[in-house]
Amino acid sequence: MAPLLQATGLEVHYGPVEAVRGVDFEIGEGEIVVFLGANGAGKSSTLNALVGLVPVQAGTVQFADSDITKARAETLTPAGLTLVPEGRRVFGTLSVAENLLMGAYGIRDKAQVAAAWDRVYTLFPILHERRGQFAGTLSGGQQQMLAIGRALMSNPKLLLLDEPSLGLAPKIVEQVFDLIVTLRDQGVTLGVVEQNAMQSLAIADRGYIFAGGRIVGSGSAQDLGESSLLSGAYLDA
User: What are phi and psi of 58, to 5 degrees?
Assistant: First the structure.
């Protein structure tokens, strides 16, 4: 069976800077795949390229048997590919409910939107409790829940998470990783960029190690956890 997402020879440049240098990877349906490496290794640029937020300079991206290499960002969420960006980026002056509704923008099927509300509020009871509260007044952990919930409103096939544990207390980090497993068990495929290497490998199926804009290692989560490539990718940065 073909992977849900496959990138071949992917390159991303910022002016003269080559942020991503010809990487090849794939994410199979039903997997949790983690992208590991130090800051500046090219992980976030890769995710941004997948969802059309930065242009692909070379290479191809296939998603659900379609070529999305040059697709516009606004067309990818309805197609089932959604990114939760680093730093959460909730709309602080909108209510929790209004933030969630933004995630369903463009969905005309009212039954689908109603089902999405139910799903998100079941996963995150605190969001239902605080649905009328301004998002900017939530804690960091609650804002991360809101950012993920907003992404889930579009019922994604593949959910990309960029540093979901960043800046969160250890207890909340555990909850975020537990949630990732729950979503996988519910049929969502996940690609996760994480600095927290060992904790993310503990829940992942496979992973890729980035360094200097290239992939320097890949394999099962267990193999990567035991590999010297992982520590080298952080120490050599």
Answer: -155, 160
Consecutive sets of 10 residues in the chain, 237 residues long: mean pLDDT of each? 92 95 97 94 96 96 96 91 89 94 84 91 96 94 94 96 92 94 96 93 96 95 87 62
**CA dist., res. 11 & res. 217, Å (int):** 17
CA-based end-to-end distance of the chain: 36
CA distance linking residue 70 with residue 48, whole number of Å: 13
Q: What CATH number does the domain containing 172 carry?
A: 3.40.50.300
Bridge partners of 122, per DSSP, are: none
Helices (H) and strands (E) in the chain, counts: 10, 10
Q: Is the pTM of this model over 0.90?
A: yes
CA–CA distance, 134 with 145 (Å, rounded to integer): 14
What H or E segment, with its residue span, contains residue 82?
strand 81-84
Closest CA to 52 of 29, 30, 35, 77: 77
Q: How many domains does the chain have?
A: 1
Residue 209 in contact with residue 216, Cβ under 8 Å? yes
From residue 119, give the alpha-carbon distance in Å to each of 44, 101, 201, 205.
28, 13, 26, 24
Instruction: Confirm if 171 and 191 have CB atoms less than 8 A apart.
Output: no
Q: Which domain holds residue 27?
A: 5-235
Count CB atoms within 10 A of the CB of residue 93. 9
